[in-house]
Amino acid sequence: MNKEGKIVTILLWVIIIISAVLLVSLMANISENDADPTMGSWVYTNLVWSYILLAIGAGIVIISEIYHMITDIKAAKGGLIALVFFAVIAGVSYMLSSDAIPQFVGVQEFIDSGALTAKVSKLIDTGLYATYILLGLAVLSIVYSSVNRLFK
User: Fold this and answer.
1) N or C: which end of the chain has fewer CB within 10 A?
2) Cα separation of 30 and 28, whole Å?
3) How many CB atoms lie within 10 A of CB 40?
4) pLDDT tens figures, 115-148
5) Which of these, 124, 129, 80, 76, lies nearest to 100 by C-alpha position?
6) Quick check: 102 and 121 in contact, CB under 8 A?
7) pLDDT over 90 (residue 103)
């Protein structure tokens, strides 16, 4: 095993040991009392550890993909095409969406609390249109592949 492989293995074992200690500590401090500050602090500590692991994992994925994209131009082209495709879908969805606040029973409560504004309504509408467009494209691709297979 090379030097980098040994370092990665050691780091993984350190992460596993820290995670195991935190999990055992949490389990040892569980109580029936929801207001127990010791249990709350262990829950908080485990959540922070989870966030740290998530951030590290996401950072490693992003950095490795950027490195892969830089070193492999063909992969970069495919990735950029996918990004442009999703940007076009988002742009079309945004242009089709409306900022009109829908009228339904209880809507005034959301408007009064500030949870539903024209901007929020437009973003929700954009998300719905993007979902509809992507669903339509998925159905069309399934139908196309089935019809194409019949003719082959």
Assistant:
1) C
2) 6
3) 13
4) 888 898 999 999 999 999 999 999 999 999 999 9
5) 124
6) yes
7) no
Three-state secondary structure call for residue 102: coil
Contact indicator for 94, 130 with CB cutoff of 8 Å: no
Q: What is the pTM of this model?
A: 0.56
Map out the domains of the chain as residue ranges: 1-71, 73-152
Contacts 24+ apart (CB under 8 A), 18-27: 18/49, 19/49, 19/53, 22/46, 22/49
Cβ–Cβ under 8 Å, residues 98 and 122: yes
CA distances from 74 to 22, 30, 69, 120, 133 (A): 43, 52, 8, 38, 27
pLDDT digits (tens, 9 = 90+) for 31-79: 777 777 777 788 889 899 999 999 999 999 889 888 888 888 877 888 7
Q: Is the dihedral of CA 57, 60, 63, 66 positive or negative?
A: negative
Closest CA to 138 of 128, 130, 127: 130
The reported pLDDT for the residue numbered 83 is 87
Longest dimension (CA), the chain: 68
